[in-house]
Structure formats: structure tokens, C-alpha cells
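Usage example:
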Amino acid sequence: MAEKKAIVIGGGIAGMSAAKVLADHFDKVILLERDLYPDTIGGRRGVPQGRMFHTLLERGRREIEDIFPGFHKLLDERKMPKVSFGFNCALMTPRGWTRNVPIPIQRSLFCTRGMLETTMRDLFKDDPRIETHEQTNVMGLVAEGSGDRARCTGVRALKKGADAPEVMLGDLIIDASGANSKAAMWLKEVGVEPPKEETLDPLLTYGGQLYRLKEGLEFPKEWWWTHGAFIQRVPPSDNKAAHLIRQESGLWLLTLVAGDGLDLPEDEDGIADFVGGMRSPLISGMLPYFEPVDIFTRYRLPSNRWRYYEKWEQNFPGFLAIGASTCVFNPNQGQGMSVAAADAGILKACLQKTASPAALPKLFFKEQAHFQKNAYRLAVANDLKFTAVQGKRTIGIKLFNWYREQQTAAGLADTYVARKVGEVDLLLKPVSSLFHPVIMARTLFARLFLFWRANPTQQESVAALPPPPAEIPKRWRNELRTAAAYVYRTITYKAGLAR
Ligand SMILES: Cc1cc2nc3c(=O)[nH]c(=O)nc-3n(C[C@H](O)[C@H](O)[C@H](O)COP(=O)(O)OP(=O)(O)OC[C@H]3O[C@@H](n4cnc5c(N)ncnc54)[C@H](O)[C@@H]3O)c2cc1C
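Running the assembly step on the lines above writes:
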């Protein structure tokens, strides 16, 4: 019998995860990656965003752990920093500094994108079922038949140093080539109409640079934000955000975000001016303790883009698209890699129903879109809060943004509401869960009657420095409550690990 082969285009988060999942259903999986994976955490051309800050949310961590067992343990062994906002990292939201808490509430994984990819790769590079071809650039698709009878049968790929692309044939071809996917062009070239798409330009430019503490200097003891600081933009017109966050191996990553087409600085003086003009002097005050260890890199964010694969009328058996090649959105909430990994989780579930190259694409596109729309809608709705962004502000979007605003405010007084909002932001629950009657009722109640509970300083959008270190409450009832919450969180955290 002929060998069943799957070809994955692109070895980023979605590509590596998809290859691992496909290996259980195909005799051979070929992963084609245009770059040479670096040995170090250094960036690579195919992932230009990799030099900017990348956090992995709880959903992404669970999904990757599920596909690459041992992922979390390996990151722990490599001593990746764990960041908890309000506990070891200061966070200034549009409403001001978040509450300072004495115990970690929700820890996210903060390491360089390079380290994350390297760790995933270390867990699958020895898998004999997956054949990885680095420095192999896919130039187009290969198809049989035309119109509605067309079927994807392979790719044309150019290996570094070769004179011409070679044809590689497979039963299933998966586009995982990220935000700059050329799939629309490739599909047209083989006579297939690509799916329709919608776009929205968030008008954002990111810039990133790695730093370390200056020789002989120590992080000041009175700064409780030992893992860094985040300052977000305030809608509708604030055009500056910045973060300085601890990464692995004593490195710190400075990220600047400029909105409304604002230019980013190029040199140290420009960077100092940029952070000096923000609504809090915190990062500006921290920077003199650090020195750069690489160059400042800029990246103009692509538009949010939704490719309607789930409504694609053209039947093109043998072709799938996954991750950012299907749906790109503003990384403001750090959801992109988690979505890419979860998409592979969805592929895994779909493959258990069918591995047929004819039936799988339609099933997968539908399920993938159902999940991705959560992150996409959150990002687009948030972008439309900024007046310079050109897009249709439907009544639905205005109402949604208003309701989110009420929930954020209610969350300051009611931790239940805050937790439910957090679950949606971490992609653990769908956006629709925010409209559960209990959450709606508690939001309304908190907004009407509990406003006095919210710490007034938190509601100032301009507050110079974070609130002082929180003290662990001394009263025994509070002690008990804190201990119970800690045990509960530890158990749920471990349960997530075991998943
Ligand atoms: C500035 C910025 C900050 C971000 N911050 C975060 C964050 O904090 N948290 C988060 O979860 N997400 C973040 N994201 C989003 C995240 O980077 C992406 O959503 C995620 O990487 C998508 O994964 P992917 O595998 O689909 O694509 P990618 O990771 O982009 O991988 C695509 C791969 O395909 C390869 N490739 C491309 N074309 C070809 C070709 N023709 N042939 C062969 N190989 C090819 C590329 O080299 C690359 O390896 C951020 C994005 C940006 C722009």
C-alpha cells in the first residue's frame, strides 16, 4: 500500500504542533521551514515578530503540554520566569495601576519567543515520523483537476542552494506559514478561488530590544515589581504603550508600541524620550539600571485579517490552513500562539473523526473558526476603541465594548466577575460565557452597589507609580481565606498540568 504522507508548510507554533498531531495519523509527516532554526534564542527572518515580547497564556500552555508532553517541565528546568500581574509585575491598565496582591493570582509564562520554540523543537526533533526540511521555501501548491474537481496533491519547494523548486507530493497539505501566508496567491495559481477575507489595520508599530542589568547594579529592593512593568494604551487616542519584562538568563525585553501611525525611535535618546512621555514615569525610571544587549528592531503590525475558510464554497480536498495563516489579530492580549496551538488541538480532535483528505478540511475549518472567533473578536473590538482605526463600529461592537468596560469596572469590586473575565482573556472560556445570567447580574450589582469597594487610586488613568507593596492581611479570617484560595489555585494549576 502507498505511504500516506502529510506536508506542513511552516514550522512555527502552528506548524510544529500540527506536524506532531498528524504524525499519529499519517505514515510520514514532512515539515518544510524556510529558515534555519537558530541554536540560540536569536530571532529568525521567518518570524520577524519573534524579537518582540511573547507571553504564553494558560490555554496555550495546556494545549502545547497536551501535544508535547513534558513541555512545561522542560521550561521549568530551564528556569523560565513566571509572571503574575500585581504580585511581581506592575500593570497599568487604562484605569490605572492594578491592585497589588500579596500572593500570585494567575501566572503566565514569560520567556523569549526563541526559547519557547527551541523547547518545543527539543521535544519533537527526534520523532522519526517527522522529517523536517529547514531552509526550504514553499513557492506554490500543486493540484490535480480544475474547478470543483481540483484536488491539492503537493507543493513546489525551493531548497537553499538549489536552482529550481522541486515538487513534493502528499495526501494532505497544511498551510501553517503564518500571518504573511501566500496561500491566496498560491490557490489562484492553481485555478482555485481563495476564500473571501476581511481586514482591519490597527495602525500599530512594535519595537523591541533586549537589555540586562548594568554591571555592578542590583534591582532595587524596594521595587516589588521584580519581573517588570507594563503600561497599556488608553482608548480612544493614547498612542504609546511600553513594557520592560524579565526574560530567561538575566535578560529583560523592552517593547515599545506606537499607535496611530506614530513613528518609533531608533536610538537610546529617542527611546528615553518615548518612555519619558508616558502617563507613568515607571519604565523611564527603570531604564537607567539597564544596558542594551542587542539592537532595537521595529515591526509594523499586519492588519487583523479573517480568512473565511469556514464559508469557503470552493471544495479543494487535500488542503488545510491553520494558525495565523487563517486568522491574524492584534497581539495586544497575547493570544496568538495560544490560538495557534489550540488550532492544532482542534486538528487532533477532528483527525479522530476522519483523516480523509476530502472530508477533514470542511470539518476542521468549521471547528477552527468557531474557536478562533473569540480571540479575533476581542482584538478587533478593542482596536475599534481607538478613533484613528478605520473600521465599521456597529451597534453590536459598541455595546460589546461598553459591556466589557462595565465588567472590568465591576471586577475591581467583585473578584468573581474579575475571574470570569480573566478566563475569557486567557481563552479558557468562550466570549459567550461573559453573557451568562449570573455574570451579568453580578456585573450590574457591582456597578450599582459596590463601587465603594474599588480602590479609588486604581481608577485614575494617570497615577505616577504603582501602589506600595501589598501586605498579607493579618486577621485570621483573611489568613484562612488567603490560604484556601492559594490551595485552590495550586490544585487547579496542577490539574491544568495533568491535562
Ligand atoms: C509584535 C507581536 C507580538 C506578539 N506577541 C504575542 C504574545 O505575547 N503572545 C502570543 O501568544 N502571541 C503573540 N503574537 C502572535 C504570534 O506571534 C502569532 O500569532 C503566532 O506566532 C502564530 O503562529 P503560526 O505558527 O501560525 O505562525 P508563525 O509563528 O509566524 O510561523 C510561521 C512559520 O512559517 C514559516 N514560513 C513562512 N512562509 C514560509 C514558506 N513559504 N515556506 C516555508 N516556511 C514558511 C516561517 O518561517 C515561520 O516559521 C505576537 C505577534 C506580534 C506581531
